[in-house]
Structure formats: C-alpha cells, structure tokens
Amino acid sequence: MLLFKPSMAAQSLPKTLIFSSTQSPNAHRASLDIAKSMVMTERTATTTTLAPPQRRTVSASEARISLVFALASQASSVSQRLLMDLASETAKYVFPKRFESRNLEEALMAVPDLETVRFKVLSRTDQYEIRVVEPYFIAETTMPGKTGFDFNGASQSFNVLAEYLFGKNTSKETMEMTTPVFTSRTQSDGERMEMTTPVITKKVEKQGKWQMSFVMPSKYGSNVPLPKDPSVRIKEVPRKVVAVVAFSGFVTDEEVKRRELKLRDALKNDRQFQVKEGASVEVAQYNPPFTLPFTRRNEIALEVEKKEG
C-alpha cells in the first residue's frame, strides 16, 4: 500500500478522493485533478476574503457640491431663526395694545406691545386721570438747545441713548426696546434687553434744559449695565402720583406748553389732588416715528400730591 499524507485541503476532501495504489492510472489522475481544483478554489476564496476593501475616491467637484449643500442647509436654518425673530418683533407693532379710552381720540391711539412702566389708575375725569406709578430705572441724557422737541436735538439725544441701549455699556449688552423712550421699549455681543415705552422728556426748570430718558427693562432691577458715555446717567425714579393727559399727533413745544397750562388749570378744581410744588411737565411718547399721527399716543404728566384737610 502506498502511504500519502493529505494536505489541509485534502483532509476536507470526500473519502472517495483519497486514493490508493490499487486505483487504475486513469482513476488516479482524475482524483489528482479534482483535488488540485478544490485546493485552488480554496486558495482563491481565501485571497478574496482577506483582500482589504477599496475606498472610493471623492472627486473635487463632488466635495464642492457637498460643501455647498451643507452651507445652504446651515444658511436656511439661520434664516428661519432670523425670520422668526423678525416676525416676533414685527407683531409687537402690527398688533398693538390699547389703553382704556375716555373719548374717540384716545380710542384710536395704539402703542406697541412692549414693556412699559407699571401704574394703577386712581381716578379719572373727562380731562385727565390720576395714576400711582411704581418705581423704575431710566437712562437719561441732557438734550442740546433750548427746546425739547426740535428734530436735530431730539435725534441727537435719542441716538446717544440708543447707542447705550444697544451695546455701548460696560457689560456690552444689547437691550430690547421698551415703551415709553418715556418714548418707547423692546432686545452684538451679549444679552439682549427689551425696549420699553415711553421715552420721557422732562424740562429742568432752573437750567432751562430738557432731559430725554429711556425706561430700562424691569428685569435688570438696580443691576442696569453702566453706560460708557459720561453724558448718559442711570437713575431710579421713585414711586409717585401723577396727573396725566393723553393726546395724539406729533409733539411740539407749543403743544406741550398749551396742554400743560390746561392741565394745571383743571387740577385747581380737583377735590383730592393738587400739583406738587416745583413739579415740572413730563412728556411720554409711546410710538415709533413711522406711526400714523392719529394713532400715536403721547402723554403729558405733572406730579401731584393729596390736598391737606
């Protein structure tokens, strides 16, 4: 008997392929051919299995297209956020809030749906109403010139306060506007404050100068960001009682003077309140410049106190 040690491949062959010397030459050659064929098949399969996968090369044009799509997707996301913010801010002006009205003129007035000073109406007549106003903080600057409502002077003061509100402060915070700039209120680097209304314009009797002030958002309390511009001052306005008259249209020095005199005369007949000694007129403007004149809300106010006895 011829002894034959099979290979690893041959060990897995069927027993019929393990041959002996008793086989015929033709059968022997056939067995060898089958064995070789199976070994070659096994090696080919092993080579195919162990071959490392080939990575597909991305062309420069494909890379550019992928980048464009990624940037477009990111830009779309940013645009959607900006549109949402814009829609939110626009809604405050498109859907304004209204004060309780005493007549048709006041019924047509509207103010942006922004934060404003907190107050409670104590009494109301056909000519004015008495309010108790809660404390609030303001950013104030002195207006140039001798008049309070000339376009150049008002614009200059407004811009100074706006720069402070929108980031020119030690905290570099951008604050949202309010109503009243005790004309108006809303939200760069840092947090955004809402702007308030009104803008307040107040005459300094002794100096003959006018002050313009923005109402600060109440969420800051006494921790209002400090201005970098020395012409801007931060002040707390204490709780006070005021007599208020509302009117529409554009504010002029002549209109303010006329309405102030009329309010002072009306208060002489008030049974509970009188004008506080040394009180000066204060003007609140609630609307942005693009507001139609007949829908604008303006107010003049005089601080009052209860009559003795």
TrEMBL record:
Which classification does the entry list for the species? Eukaryota, Viridiplantae, Streptophyta, Embryophyta, Tracheophyta
Assigned protein family: Belongs to the HEBP family.
Q: Which organism is it from?
A: Theobroma cacao (Cacao)
Q: Which InterPro entries does this one have?
A: Reg_factor_effector_dom_sf, SOUL_heme-bd
Checking Pfam families in the record gives: SOUL
Report the protein name in the record.
Soul heme-binding family protein isoform 1
